[in-house]
Design brief:
alpha/beta, six-stranded mixed beta sheet, 2-enoyl-CoA Hydratase, Chain A, domain 1, 14 helices, 20 strands, six-stranded parallel beta sheet, Rossmann fold, 2 domains, globular, 419 residues
């Protein structure tokens, strides 16, 4: 028997396959970390893309930085200190440099949770606020994008003299890639803005790994221009969440150059579609809830044949991550009912997650392993399992010897494609 392991929450799951069964591992290249990540960040800040240096912003009286929430593995402990140091060198007092947690439509983080993403030394020195997409009193209207998206965004952010974004560049199932202005354009946007942008996911070009021709992602860029994001600092991480590259400067150039670098490791070509795929989003925080974990299934479906079987192993310690999704889907009996209601009512954030799961679950037979109770998982139209090895053995019994078996241990960070 051959032993394999799969990230699951903050730990790993192991499973075995018979020696006569081949399994292909479809994962980003295991690239080494930068020898000195702090030096890589400093070099990026000193030689910014587009020549947009922080030192050129002398005279600003305030700054706001959009930072990612607990659902993203952004190494703030490395990225923020050199950036904050340079902002203070502009003459800014720590109290005039705000850190805004870009939650988008995710639940706002509580102050007790801030230590999950920020070192205590930063929390003690700078004001930190969490965004709430539904807090209309703290939103400002800036106009419409060419795609017709009404742009409502965080008041604290737009009222700052200098607006910055921090994040990491990685694949996204319908925005193509995360990073660049997205942390502010979506992360600090109002609910109506995010809803209008995300409705573009129905467009065939709003797809994994697509950037220039992607209407949803180009709408994000247009939102960023309306907001007026001045400066970006992004990292590209390896499989161990270590910094490989750092890019800084003009946010559009950061995302353009960053995507080219990210593709070198995250794009993986395969020769044939798979009959059986064992999938993990990549462990914590990518499987912190079902809202995030669903993305892994979509990535895997890109290289699976219709009618294949997928096991999605995602811990989901925080449940679904979306109350509106739960309330919308519970009580439904089939994916067909999801499709009918979703089309009848129109696109809505939250219910869109039910649509995405139904879309993928209609293509493949989905078995779901998580910390959620089986009854609750069934109420979400999922087919729960409680023992990974037992489920794998059961699938293998029904597969012919010629069946193609794959494993995606970091599916959310992988852009698989059929050659």
């Amino acid at each position: 028997m051959n032993e394999f392991s799969l990230p699951y929450g903050k730990t790993e799951l192991t499973f075995h396959l018979p020696d006569d069964r081949r399994i292909d591992c479809i994962a980003p290249l295991d690239v080494p970390a930068a020898a000195d990540p702090q030096a890589a960040i400093n070099e990026a800040l000193e030689a910014p893309l587009g020549g947009r240096r922080l030192a050129d912003f002398q005279g600003v009286r305030s700054a706001a930085i959009a930072i990612n929430d607990k659902t993203r593995p952004v190494p703030h402990q490395f990225l923020l200190p050199p950036l904050l140091e340079r902002l203070e060198m502009l003459g800014l007092e720590p109290g005039s440099i705000q850190l805004l947690i870009a939650t988008g439509t995710h639940p706002p983080m509580t102050r007790d949770e801030f230590t999950q993403i920020l070192p205590g030394s930063i929390l003690e020195r700078y004001p930190v606020y969490t965004h709430d997409a539904r807090d209309e009193a703290n939103l400002v209207y800036l106009g419409q994008t060419p795609h017709g998206t009404p742009v409502w965004t965080n008041r604290r952010y737009v009222e700052a003299d200098l607006r910055l974004v921090i994040g990491n560049i990685e694949p996204h199932q319908f925005e193509g890639f995360s990073g660049g202005v997205k942390s502010a354009a979506i992360g600090l946007a109002g609910d109506v803005t995010i809803n209008h942008n995300h409705a573009m996911m129905i467009d065939p070009m709003s797809n994994l790994g697509v950037f220039e021709e992607n209407p949803a992602r180009q709408d994000v860029e247009a939102i960023g221009r309306l907001i007026g994001v001045h400066f970006g600092l992004n990292a590209i991480l390896n499989n161990r969440k270590e910094i490989v590259h750092a890019l800084a400067g003009d946010p559009y150039l950061v995302i353009q150059h960053g995507i080219q670098l990210a593709r070198q490791s995250c794009q993986v070509g395969v020769d044939h579609p798979y009959d059986f795929m064992i999938v993990s989003p990549g462990g914590h925080p990518k499987d912190i809830n079902l809202y995030q974990s669903q993305k892994a299934l979509y990535h895997a479906c890109q290289v699976m044949r219709s009618g294949a079987t997928a096991i999605l192993a995602a811990a989901c310690p925080e449940g679904t991550g979306s109350r509106s999704y739960e309330e919308w889907v519970i009580g439904m009996k089939s994916y067909a009912e999801v499709f009918e209601r979703f089309e009848r009512e129109g696109f809505r954030i939250g219910p869109h997650k039910a649509f995405q799961i139904a879309r993928d679950g209609s293509k493949v037979r989905l078995l779901f392993l998580s910390e959620m109770s089986p009854d609750f998982a069934r109420s979400l139209l999922l087919d729960p399992i409680t023992d990974l090895q037992q489920a794998i053995d059961g699938v293998l019994e029904r597969l012919p010897a010629s069946a193609r078996i794959g494993m995606m241990p970091r599916a959310t960070s992988t852009v698989p494609y059929l050659r």
